[in-house]
Amino acid sequence: MKDHKKNLWLVALLAFVMTAGSALAQVKDHRDIKYPKLPEFKVPSPETYKLKNGMTVFLIEDHELPLIRVTARVRSGSNYEPAEKTGLGDIFGQAHREGGTSSMTGDEIDDFLEARAAFIETGMGGDVGTASMNCLTDDFSEVFSLFKDVLLDPVFDEAKIELAKRQVKTGIARRNDNVGSIVGREFNRLMYGADSALGRNTEYATVAAVTRDDLIAWHKKYYHPNNVYLGVSGDFDSAKMKETIEKTFGEWPEGPAFDEAEVAYRKPSPGVHFIEKTDVTQANIRLGHLGIETGNPDYFAVQVMNEVLGGSFASRLFSNVRSEKGLAYNVFGGIGSSFTRPGVFRVGLSTKSSTMGEAVDALKEEVDGIINNPPNDDEMQRATESILNSFVFNYTSVGQILGQQMTYAYYGMPADFLEKYRSNIEKVTGADVARVAKKYIHPDQMALLVVGKAEDFDRPVASFGEVNEIDISIPPPPDTAPKLTRTPQSLEAGAKLFARTAGVIAGSGAKIKSIKSDATLVVKMGGQSMSLGQSVVTELPDKLTTTMRTPMGEQKIVINGDRGMVFAGGQQQPLPDSAVADRLSDLNRQLLFLVNGLGDEGLEAVAAGSEDVDGAPCEIVAVTFGGSESRLWVAADGTVAKQVYQGKHPMRGTPGTIEVRFSDYREQDGRMIPYKQTMLFEGEELGSMEVDTIAINPELEAGTFEIPTGG
């Protein structure tokens, strides 16, 4: 039967190709080719029903492969998390599955699924919680049973919560690394409001505020069968699947109805906004205001207008801004829509810094043009055909079709929304496009956002209006260190304690101006250890060269004053200003340089109690030097057993508590130098360093800290 169907498709395809080929042979211009009208296409519809407890079920059989996929959508979403716990949804989505169930830990679930080439995943979007599974037909019964346990009975293991938090914090640390991410995020905040759930940033403090009890309470509040849409597609018999679903979820008691409270947002105000980013050579630009909802009767006319404006290489933005004026490689624009609230109308591009002003003018010109110059017949034909020709990609799999139907049901859209999409697009006229452009695009209400290096722009951002400069600096995590009590007594005791340890470590020799060392590092990553070679040359107050020898080759970082450069693989690139500042700040915490600051007017030492280190009693002194604070645990012999400070993970860039353990002290030129250091981040050991050679105040080669001009 399957072979027969394939043969029919081949015959139809051959007939189409022959017809097209015949038409092609008879015309000289490709625009004169006439194609037959596309045949009507019937979208497969899932069988839909409800359990007595309110769970909505969707079923589509597909016997092409021996696989079954299950998807659950839960009325929930990170848009409903408290502002002071922003990030709760992301943490919940990861810890829900990885945290295990009362019958199986997360790691045991990993092993169980791996042995069956199956997966179970959970997540949390803005408006929806998700859970999904995929497995071979023969394994469905036991994997589906586990899927039920994950959905109904998660335990949210503390260790997995901490892992999820760590990953969220890594995202915070890196959120300003990519300029595209910055402009997208901040434009979204301008559109909906920084205080709205649609625009809030997850911060270290809000992540720290999330507890296991919060996740348990979230699950208890939202995860009930009457809030769940369950879709099953694949190789099964529908009658038997219904019995399985009833047996698995039928006894799950109905819970309270979902709170339909709207997510608040504000209408954006027109204005000019700027973010300074000095380490980029392009200006990133966005213009826009709020868009429409997907249920808007003008939705289809807007889609055709979007195609004319910026939907393809033949669109106005591409033709005029990219191809004709050469202002951008990629340019885009259109009115966005959302199921539950207005989307965003935006036009944007990235352009050379030296053409920022010209590019803004060009975008504004096209925005005005789509309003004042309606599309001609050729533009309408190209736009409509482009949309219709890509329509087939909405039906690449049965699973995709099922997902679409679940989405429409979840958001209260007509089940035949996509099925009628083509006919609705075909009905759109040029007059419709002209009407919706005037109705939904308002040049006088647009916000302009520019991200880039101001001194390289062809004209000031202020030439477009009064500028609001946006601060994208990342607030530091809450300081969990015990508060210091500064009294005359604690300051005097701290000064004496610091003087004692400085005398032991620094000795009575000359002030340390520079250090040159070679060391072996053992770095721990993902349960594995890797040995690296490292050479460091430092000269106070602001020069540093670090050369790392790795299995992948040599990497070198040079800092000279406020400039930094990374050299690797024959390439070089600037070190971000923030990274330069962090490394120079760390110089003031390096033990040999820190004790070298004894007597400096800018150094403050405060006695901070006592505590054992590995069973040995130590006195604690909090030292601030050059604006950098750390705490030293001073042993009875005056050496430092450990140092603790707030810093950043050396690879992830995440802020947190860094602890350095010092050992293997050796006398050298009247000084006591620790030849071994072990570093921990948030209690996790990152690795160790053993000094091979070290020289104090050596003669340095010329060019040690040289950075090429223009680098």
Can you describe this structure?
The structure is a single chain. Mean pLDDT is 90; it is low at 1-24. A hairpin with a 3-residue loop joins strand 16 (528-539) and strand 17 (543-550). This protein starts with a helix and ends in a 15-residue tail after the last strand. The strands form 4 sheets. A 13-stranded antiparallel sheet has the order 20-19-18-17-16-15-27-26-25-24-23-22-21, covered by helices on one side. The protein has a 6-stranded mixed sheet with strand order 1-2-6-3-5-4, with helices on both faces. The chain has a 6-stranded mixed sheet with strand order 10-12-8-13-7-14, with helices on both faces. The protein has 4 domains: 2-32; 47-249, Metalloenzyme, LuxS/M16 peptidase-like (Cytochrome Bc1 Complex, Chain A, domain 1); 281-399 and 412-469, Metalloenzyme, LuxS/M16 peptidase-like (Cytochrome Bc1 Complex, Chain A, domain 1, 2-Layer Sandwich); 488-696, outer membrane lipoprotein receptor (LolB), chain A. With 711 residues, the protein is α+β, with helices and mostly antiparallel strands. The longest helix has 25 residues, at 2-26. It has 19 helices and 27 strands.
